[in-house]
Design a protein that fits this description.
A: mainly beta, 31 strands, B: alpha+beta
């Protein structure tokens, strides 16, 4: 390959990378910066022909800011723009109260791939905390930037990052309407449509191995539950009974699916064995029972029921038996799922101010609203449990929104891919 | 409140939509993850997130759409093909019950007639709960028909939840039109 064509290819790859980047706009809504770690992500130098893009540093900086745990220093306040440890003079950064510095370089290789090197430096101890070198195709630079973000997050917080993960969401637009089930990076970039339909699609749910999605599609003109393999595109209809077929939820071990069926008269929770297709009814009540979600240990299922008159959350053992009420207070608590530690639920509540995302403490039986929307829906934890993604409204249009668990940082992700309705955050792996 | 012409118009619209739906067979495309689809739509202006403080929504608000069946003739009752419900409720109003009864009598007089009862919900709350709620509404009407002797095999219940609103908008005027069961003769 000639040097020229390599340059052209690289430029093309950068352009391809930059296009989905332009498809998304984000807004930060930040309250208070205390307790966030001050960090500076210096734009990475590019060595080679072609246009130098500062994409990796920008992605890393945006990721860290969105997590709510970091306060990246504004570019215009930078003391310098070092690219190597030798170039770093720590004192000016200390004066800016920056605790950590991220520097790096991009280098085009002879085969057209990009070598990306980064270092995480401790400004006060004047030493390197982490450093790594990757050589990747230009098209994978975005993913590599997410991986670097995860390394920085883990080194500084001692918790696994969740930037190199994905989200699945449903969009609708056009006349006649087009419903699309899409998958994108956790920051909303690089959306890809995996299902497109003229009829509603809802309730996307990732399998625990991150390889499949369960969802509800109205393509047969009524609700039916499907499982789609993401790589092959192959799919299987697993519930197409009379009545409602909805609300699929994977068990933590990936072997069972809880779902809502009304084939026996009214909506009840059923468990479906993926191997063998055995179906077992779990709830028995004349009221509505729907929206099942598994406890982290797989031993129980919580669900929404209006057996008390209004929607509230109940819990039942996965082996069956009597259901017990979980949530009290509030006129409307629905669509709950467990935090990874099992100590709280994220749900949709209406305390008189609209339908909002809230955390429900199981120990204290208290509800804490995290959002301020009117029609917020489908909250979903990041796989490390540190953030929540949900669907909200901005200007009368459905958007994705991300929230740090402390509620401090809330970010709207507006995609060009249509009005967003529901979202589900992927588990680790499966890529 | 809502006179006959409105109802007829809405019914005509529902029939047109039904024919359109029949003509346009559901078109669904499955794409593997490895084969991306590029979507380009112009970017709009940005808005702030969330509601203004004065936009407070009470979940308990109810709206009695039309609840006086007195003085309506059998013909007028039969011409009503949409039954409306209160917020988070599947209870039939007096009018809803009278309309259901009239359709039950009508179905009783024609052994070949079949109906689809489409249940719908307004946009508030979670989608899956609304799917269940809308089915409950349609089944409430189905129960009335069956109680008056209509064979269950002639009744089909379908729930669309909040997915197919009759009226656009995020206000009580729209919501009250969307909490409904549509009676569609086949």
């Amino acid at each position: 390959m000639s040097a020229h064509s390599r340059i052209a290819l690289f430029a093309l790859a950068l352009a391809a990378m930059a296009r989905p980047a332009a498809a998304v706009v984000t807004i930060d809504v930040t309250r208070g910066t205390e307790s966030r770690i001050p960090i500076a992500v210096v734009p990475f130098a590019f060595e080679g022909a072609g246009a130098a893009e500062n994409l990796p540093a920008a992605i890393i900086e945006a990721n860290l800011a969105r997590s709510g745990r970091f306060a990246p220093l504004a570019r215009e306040d930078f003391a310098a723009r070092p690219q190597t440890p030798e170039e770093v003079r720590y004192k000016p950064w200390r004066l800016l109260k920056v605790e950590n510095l991220v520097i790096g370089r991009l280098k085009e290789q002879k085969d057209g791939r990009i070598q990306i090197q980064f270092r995480l430096l401790d400004v006060f101890r004047e030493r390197q905390i982490a450093g790594q070198k990757f050589t990747v195709p230009a098209a994978r630079l975005r993913k590599t930037a997410h991986q670097i973000s995860d390394i920085i997050y883990e080194k500084l917080l001692g918790r696994r990052g969740a930037f190199d993960t994905r989200i699945a969401f449903v969009t609708v637009d056009g006349r006649p309407r087009r419903y699309r089930l899409q998958i994108a990076d956790a920051d909303g970039h690089s959306p890809k449509t995996i299902l497109e339909s003229s009829r509603p699609v809802l309730s996307p749910a990732w399998s625990p191995d991150g390889r499949r999605l369960a969802y509800v599609s109205f393509e047969q003109n009524r609700s039916m539950v499907y499982i789609q393999d993401l790589w092959s595109g192959k799919r299987e209809r697993i519930a197409g009974y009379d009545g409602i077929n909805g609300a699929p939820a994977w068990s933590p071990d990936g072997r069972r699916l809880a779902l809502t069926l009304s084939k026996e008269g009214n909506p009840e929770i059923y468990l479906y064995e993926l191997a063998g297709g055995k179906l077992r009814r779990l709830t028995r009540h004349t009221a509505i029972d729907t929206e099942p979600a598994w406890s982290p240990d797989g031993g129980g299922v919580i669900f929404t029921s209006n057996r008390s008159g209004r929607p509230q959350i109940y819990r039942i053992s996965a082996r069956g038996g009597a259901a017990e009420r979980v949530t009290f207070g509030g006129k409307y608590n629905a669509g709950a799922s467990y935090a990874a530690d099992g100590k709280s639920l994220v749900l949709i509540t209406n305390q008189g101010n609209g339908y909002r995302v809230a955390l429900y403490s199981l120990a204290e039986h208290s509800v804490r609203e995290l959002t301020r929307g009117r029609h917020d829906e489908s909250p979903s934890f990041s796989p490390n449990g540190d953030m929540i993604m949900y669907a909200s409204q901005a200007g009368g249009r459905g958007v994705l929104a991300a929230l740090s668990l402390d509620g401090r940082v809330r970010q709207v992700i507006r995609t060009r891919a249509g009005a967003v309705r529901e979202v589900d955050w992927s588990p680790y792996g499966g890529q | 409140m809502h006179k006959l012409p409105d109802i007829l118009l809405r019914r005509a619209a529902a029939l047109v939509a039904l024919f359109a739906a029949m003509l346009l067979a559901a078109c669904t495309t499955v794409t593997p993850y490895s084969d991306p689809v590029v979507v380009e739509v112009p970017l709009e202006g940005l808005d702030d997130l969330g509601a203004a403080d004065e936009d407070i929504i009470e979940p308990s608000d109810t709206y009695i759409y039309e609840d006086d069946a007195s003085g309506l003739s059998e013909k007028e009752l039969l011409e009503k093909r949409v039954i409306y419900f209160d917020y988070d409720s599947s209870f039939l109003s007096e009018l809803g019950e009278a309309v259901s009864n009239a359709h039950a009598r009508n179905l009783g007089g024609d052994a070949n007639a079949r109906v689809i009862l489409e249940g719908h919900a307004d946009e508030r709350g979670t989608r899956e709960y609304n799917l269940a709620l809308a089915e409950d509404r349609a089944k409430t009407v189905a129960d009335v028909l069956q109680a008056l002797g209509v064979d269950g095999a002639r009744i089909e219940v379908v729930s669309y939840g909040e997915e197919r609103p009759a009226a656009a908008g995020s206000n009580e005027a729209a919501w009250s039109q969307n909490r409904r069961v549509e009676i569609l003769y086949q």
